[in-house]
From TrEMBL, chain A:
InterPro entries: AAA+_ATPase, ABC_transporter-like_ATP-bd, ABC_transporter-like_CS, BCAA_Transport_ATP-bd_LivF, P-loop_NTPase. The keyword ATP-binding applies. Coiled coil: none annotated. The keyword ATP-binding applies. This is Amino acid/amide ABC transporter ATP-binding protein 2 (HAAT family). Signal peptide: none annotated. One of its GO terms (biological process) is L-amino acid transport. It comes from Rhizobium loti. Belongs to the ABC transporter superfamily.
TrEMBL record, chain B:
Belongs to the leucine-binding protein family. It holds the Pfam family Peripla_BP_6. Residues 30-370 form the Leucine-binding protein domain. The keyword Phosphoprotein does not apply. This is Amino acid/amide ABC transporter substrate-binding protein (HAAT family). Residues 1-27 form the signal peptide. Keywords: Amino-acid transport, Signal, Transport. Coiled coil: none annotated. InterPro entries: BCAA_transport (IPR051010), Leu-bd (IPR028081), Peripla_BP_I (IPR028082). It comes from Rhizobium loti (Mesorhizobium loti). GO terms for biological process: amino acid transport.
TrEMBL record, chain C:
CDD domains: TM_PBP1_LivH_like. It comes from Rhizobium loti. GO terms for molecular function: L-isoleucine transmembrane transporter activity; L-leucine transmembrane transporter activity; L-phenylalanine transmembrane transporter activity; L-valine transmembrane transporter activity. The lineage of its organism: Bacteria, Pseudomonadati, Pseudomonadota, Alphaproteobacteria, Hyphomicrobiales. Belongs to the binding-protein-dependent transport system permease family. LivHM subfamily. This is Amino acid/amide ABC transporter membrane protein 1 (HAAT family). It is found in: Cell membrane. GO terms for biological process: D-alanine transmembrane transport; L-alanine transport; L-isoleucine import across plasma membrane. InterPro entries: ABC_transp_permease, BCAA_transport_permease. Keywords: Amino-acid transport, Cell inner membrane, Cell membrane, Membrane, Transmembrane, Transmembrane helix, Transport. The chain crosses the membrane at residues 12-36, 48-75, 87-107, 127-157, 186-205, 225-249.
């Protein structure tokens, strides 16, 4: 469904990503793991169109989307849930959801979609008229995911969904990710918590210094020495 | 309206080429520097005056130049209506060899240019700056050409008293000598002749809102029967629009700076407003003939009497050079200062015995139905005119 | 007297609020203080004049003039600012100064340096009274128009998707784009709204001043800038609050300062601005911005 080929990203003189190749098949969860600064978020940003690509290609559904604007890529069915959630703090939960489904579908459909989201995240129904900024971190993460789902994406890019959340909330979020996958959504997950990521993912790609150092099924990686030593603390 | 600026530039080019053609024949050339506003707030005053001056210089050049022998080369630089910029361009004009300097229609930039010309003894004439303090602030090279503020104010006051007005409100702005002092001169004459000043207000030039001042006028215990101001564009239209908009019908009088097409075009709004001019074109008068000639020269009728005033500057310079018999700045200066009963277009102009602000007639005008109507022309009694 | 001055203050404050809002809307989206905002007003003023000269009925002329302001704002974005997208704040600021100067010169040389009289219809120079209390038609129109414009803008920003997106974009533009909402649409709408506000403000301004001149936009844009900064740059409620505050202070000082101190009026107002910013550096009602790591 998505393939990234020989991706290179530069910020000025700094090469944040030297070479990343990866593919995501329909219905899969792929985890992109690695240390801070390995180039995970930059890769996601490049796929979503937020980060300019120096060279290489991003293909979605057989179409080259390299260099398209974020809005064009979103309209093709790729939704990014950015790191730090970045919900609109001064807007109500309702308005946050509304923007998520604003341009992809007719109003009536967006209503239905919103109702689905409120079923999926009952907490959001409770705080429907509350400003996003007043929600707790976990609630904001729910909102951010729900907002991304409003546009009925076929693929969702999750950037560090566990960051800054309390342990029990992390479980809730990961349960939810598993459920989304069951519903047929394709997911590219960036996560620092490697153990968690490998638990939920089908396959994983390990990045270090802007390059792919290892890839394979989640099981293979979980048992590889390199991953165990470097990321799982074993 | 076609672009004034482009028209002027075309005329300037023509003038320069004309001069070039003649100057090969006559060896003597005199450079006149004009530091005047082509842009900004003073441009609406400087440009018409400059057009009049240029017309007279063109005519004089066709007859051999000033005094019949000094072909004029007129150098014009834009002051952008800025006092500091005026000094800068005046210096450039001096460096280019100007022997006579023309300065903008306002005291402050004229004084800043005069500071430079005074030590060099270069005769300096303001286009239509009318503050009587102007010449004293610079020194003996500085000449006014337009009827001075205190003279104009006296004429308006004489008229207001003759109409039976008793109580005046004075609206001034400290931002320029003209707007600050002219209404006060009026107040002095008005009080001396039995009237009373019942209130004073101030505004800043460019101020958007006069409502507070107008509410103060409405709240005066002693109701004025006249408001006197020297506000001009764009403050005068704003003031009178808001004054009438607040339901105040007290008449408003001003002076020469509101004798412009812009104010006239305000139509009914300015009905009854009295202002001054340097002259009035009665049928058969020299001024009427000038207006016709100017229309032919410039392609449009004069907007006000600034054009004729500018034209008269050319005549004054011609006479002075003739009297001096040379283009020596000192001699030319002395000749201007000695002019007595010189026949201009609008009437007799006298510098002799004055502080280099000319004695000359003042025409009183009144707007009625979108037209400026002549009320009377007078030379105020010198004894009534308040000291600067 | 006091009631009258309050009306004066509200009337002036309303115009300042419209102007400050125009600046704030664009700033909140693209981080640009558009100093050419004043020239949009000037342009609307000339458009009004031209429409009246062409013999359009007054309401039509006003409509044409306001639309001209709005279209000019959109065109300005297309021609001058879009190529600069992504440039630094300083470059954007300089571009806006350049556009402003350019337009002033175009007005001066293409039309006239002289102010042009705009004859307002007679009914605008009247007043109606309640007992011994008179209100001018001019200030009343100012108050009503600014109030309606503020309400309409509020409704637009709250109810419509584009309005909601604009509020969101003020916080975090990138994420709005991630929702599939085109950046150009948001930016164009911001300029359109700021142009509409400039056009409306120009109508009120010209109605009170009865003339248009090439430099007409300078004072209002300066006042709007002050109001927007005092209110909190980029904050729309702040811009409105700042506008009204500035109007109240100016009228208050004009009404009460003795003649000898009157020339220092602007200095006093600006000192007040500094005082406000010392106490509240982010302005009265600071803008919400996304905290990014």
């Amino acid at each position: 469904m998505l393939s990234v080929e020989a991706l290179k990203i530069r910020y000025g003189e700094v090469e944040a990503v030297r070479r990343v190749d990866l593919t995501v098949d329909s219905g899969e969860i792929i985890a992109l793991v690695g240390a801070n600064g390995a180039g995970k978020s930059s890769t996601l940003g490049a796929v979503a169109g937020l980060v300019p690509v120096a060279s290489g290609k991003v293909i979605f559904d057989g179409v080259d989307i390299t260099g398209l604007t974020p809005e064009a890529i979103a309209r093709k069915g790729v939704a990014l849930v950015p790191e730090g959630r970045r919900i609109f703090a001064s807007l109500t939960v309702a308005d946050n959801l509304r923007l998520g489904g604003a341009v992809h579908q007719p109003v009536a459909e967006a209503r239905l979609r919103e109702e689905e989201m409120l079923e999926l995240f009952p907490i959001l129904r409770r705080y429907y008229r509350v400003k996003g900024g007043n929600l707790s971190g976990g609630e904001q993460q729910m909102l951010a995911i729900a907002r991304a789902l409003m546009g009925k994406p076929r693929m969702i890019l999750l950037d560090e969904p566990s960051l800054g959340l309390a342990p029990q909330l992390i479980d809730t979020v990961f349960d939810l990710i598993a459920e989304l996958r069951r519903k047929g959504l394709t997911i590219l997950l960036v996560e620092q918590n490697v153990a968690l990521a490998l638990e939920i993912a089908d396959r994983a790609v390990v990045l270090a210094n802007g390059e792919v150092v290892l890839s394979g099924t989640a099981k293979e990686l979980a048992s590889s020495d390199l991953v165990r030593q470097a990321y799982l603390g074993a | 309206m076609p672009s004034l600026y482009r028209l002027h530039r075309a005329a300037l080019c023509a003038a320069v080429f004309g001069i070039a053609a003649i100057s090969t024949a006559s060896a003597e050339e005199i450079i006149i520097g004009a530091a005047t506003a082509q842009t900004g707030g003073l441009a609406p005053y400087d440009q018409p005056a400059l057009a009049g001056l240029r017309m007279s210089l063109d005519e004089l050049n066709a007859k051999g130049g000033l005094g019949g022998k000094y072909t004029v080369k007129l150098l014009i630089k834009d002051t952008r209506s800025d006092t500091a910029q005026t000094a800068t361009v005046a210096q450039e004009l001096i460096d280019a060899g100007a022997k006579i300097m023309i300065t903008p229609c306002d005291a402050d930039p004229s004084i800043s240019a005069g500071q430079l010309t005074q030590p060099l003894g270069i005769p300096t004439l303001t286009l239509c700056g009318s503050a009587p303090v102007l010449t004293g602030a610079v020194g003996d090279v500085m000449f006014g050409t337009y009827p001075a503020d205190n003279v104009q104010a006296t004429a308006v006051a004489d008229f207001a008293v003759s109409e039976g007005r008793k109580k005046v409100f004075l609206l001034t702005s400290p931002d320029s000598t003209y707007t600050a002092n002219l209404p006060e001169y009026f107040g002095k004459v008005f009080e001396k002749k039995g009237g009373a000043v019942v209130g004073r207000g101030t505004f800043s030039m460019g101020q958007p809102d006069f409502s507070a001042e107008i509410t103060n006028i409405k709240g005066l215990a002693d109701k004025p029967d006249l408001i006197m101001t020297a506000a001009y564009e764009p403050d005068f239209p704003a003031f009178i629009q808001q004054l009438r908009g607040a339901g105040v019908t007290i008449p408003v009088y001003g002076a020469d700076a509101i004798g412009t097409p812009t104010i006239k075009a305000l139509g009914k709004l300015v009905d009854g407003v009295v202002y001054t001019a340097a002259g009035y074109a009665e049928p058969g008068s020299k001024l009427e003939a000038f207006n016709a000639a100017f229309t032919k020269y410039a392609g449009h009728a004069p907007e006000s009497t600034y054009e004729v005033n500018g034209y008269e500057i050319g005549l004054i310079l011609d006479q002075a050079v003739k009297t001096a018999g040379s283009d020596d700045p000192k001699a030319v200066r002395d000749a201007i200062a000695g002019l007595k009963d010189f026949e201009g277009i609008t009437g007799k102009i006298t510098y002799a015995g004055t502080d280099r602000m000319p004695l000359r007639p003042v025409a009183l005008m009144r707007y009625e139905g979108g037209e400026g109507k002549h009320v009377q022309t007078l030379i105020p009694d010198a004894a009534d005119v308040p000291a600067p | 007297m006091i009631a009258q001055q309050i009306i004066n203050a509200v009337s002036l404050g309303g115009v300042y609020a419209l102007l400050a809002l125009g600046l704030a809307i664009v700033f909140s989206i693209v981080g640009l203080i558009n100093f050419a905002h004043g020239e949009l007003m000037t342009l609307s003023g000339y458009a009004l004049l031209a429409s009246l000269v062409l013999g359009f009925p007054f309401p039509v002329a006003v409509l044409v003039a306001v639309s001209c302001g709005a279209l000019a704002a959109v065109a300005m974005e297309r021609i001058a600012f879009r190529p600069m997208r992504g440039a630094s704040v300083t470059s954007l600021l300089l571009t806006s100064f350049a556009v402003s100067s350019l337009l002033k010169v175009v007005f001066q040389n293409g039309i006239s340096a002289r102010p042009q009289a705009v004859a307002m219809p007679g009914w605008m120079t009247g007043a109606f009274s309640f007992g011994d209390f008179t209100i001018g038609v001019g200030p009343s129109i100012s108050i009503v128009v600014s109030a309606l414009a503020l309400i309409a803008l509020e409704v637009f920003l709250r109810r419509s998707v584009t309005g909601t997106a604009m509020r969101a974009a003020a916080e975090d533009f990138d994420v709005v784009r991630l929702m599939g909402i085109p950046a150009s649409r948001i930016i164009a709408t911001a300029f359109l709204l700021s142009g509409l506000l400039a056009g409306l403000a120009a109508m009120l301004w010209v109605a009170q001043r009865a003339s248009v001149d090439p430099l007409m936009g300078f004072t209002p844009v300066l006042k709007a800038f002050i109001a927007a900064v005092v209110g909190g740059l980029g904050s729309l409620p702040g811009a409105v609050a700042g506008g009204f505050l500035l109007g109240v202070i100016e009228v208050l000082l004009q009404a009460t300062l003795p003649g000898a101190i009157a020339p220092y009026r602007d200095a006093i107002v600006l000192s007040g601005v500094i005082a406000v910013l010392l106490v509240r550096p982010q302005g009265l009602i600071p803008a919400v911005r996304a905290q990014r790591s």
